[in-house]
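Supplementary Methods. Inverse-folding protocol.

Structures were first reduced to a discrete structure-token string of length 283. This string, shown here, constituted the complete conditioning input.
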């Protein structure tokens, strides 16, 4: 098993982050990850991404922060965050914490959970309301495991068992999302639809039900994340816009304002967590 572990000891805090990309789950999962430790910056600003996140908090609970900077109630111990189309801020607990995450591809989430993706889009749901005692038992098994590798293995076993009774995704939608993912949203939606058996209206309706957003919006989020990654690595603004498939830099700027709530230049200048695109914030 190819677990990748990064240890951080810096002004941002001290923690270990372990991730695993199991080859037998690539159709439904981008990665499974495990975070354990403490950050010195209390808040983290997250940006839209073309996936859903299944979260299990083994220790102290994180909290949501509203648009006015007010801290809300803690997130459920086991929760599902749907595809986000706007930036979000979370607040870490004061004590060290442990979080396990499953980064689900939209089609994977639809297959595993058997519910329209639109129901979770832009919100965080209590997984107990969706999966009942099944998720409670998984949480207990993760709490009983003492190592990141052991906990990620527990998640893998649960995913495999769940996949054995998964709902079927529409093959055209599954194929189309794969093509858009591989191209980071740069393939033509019209050209892809022409290769399916679905009409325009049926394609959009089915895509939105199983992915959570329209094909065009999904491609835009993928391009935005591509640009975000390039800028995170120090790429020039104009070069990032071209490499991510935008018409020009103003086009990229417009998507950044919508999805990030800031300009690309502001993102580059902001304080970011090590090895991440998310921003570290004090309040």
């Amino acid at each position: 098993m190819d677990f990748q572990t990064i240890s951080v000891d810096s002004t941002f805090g001290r923690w270990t982050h372990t991730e695993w990309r199991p080859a037998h789950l690539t159709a439904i999962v981008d990665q499974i990850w495990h975070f354990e430790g403490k950050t010195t910056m209390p808040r983290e600003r997250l940006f839209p991404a073309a996936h859903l996140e299944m979260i299990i908090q083994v220790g102290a609970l994180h909290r949501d922060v509203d648009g006015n900077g007010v801290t809300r109630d803690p997130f459920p111990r086991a929760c599902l965050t749907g595809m986000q189309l706007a930036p979000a801020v979370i607040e870490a607990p004061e004590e060290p914490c442990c979080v396990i995450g499953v980064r689900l591809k939209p089609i994977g989430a639809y297959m595993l959970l058997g519910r329209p993706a639109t129901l979770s889009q832009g919100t965080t749901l209590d997984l107990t309301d969706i999966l009942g005692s099944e998720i409670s038992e998984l949480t207990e098994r993760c709490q009983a495991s003492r190592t990141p590798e052991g906990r990620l293995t527990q998640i893998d076993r649960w995913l495999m068992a769940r996949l054995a009774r998964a709902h079927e995704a529409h093959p055209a939608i599954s194929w189309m999302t794969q093509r858009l993912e591989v191209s980071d949203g740069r393939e033509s939606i019209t050209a892809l639809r022409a290769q399916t058996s679905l009409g325009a209206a049926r394609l959009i309706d089915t895509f939105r039900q199983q992915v959570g957003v329209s094909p065009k919006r999904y491609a835009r989020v993928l391009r935005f994340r591509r640009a975000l990654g390039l800028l995170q690595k120090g790429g020039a603004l104009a070069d990032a816009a071209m490499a991510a498939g935008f018409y020009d830099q103003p086009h990229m700027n417009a998507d950044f304002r919508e999805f990030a709530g800031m300009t690309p230049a502001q993102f580059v200048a902001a304080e970011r967590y090590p090895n991440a695109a998310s921003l570290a914030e004090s309040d």
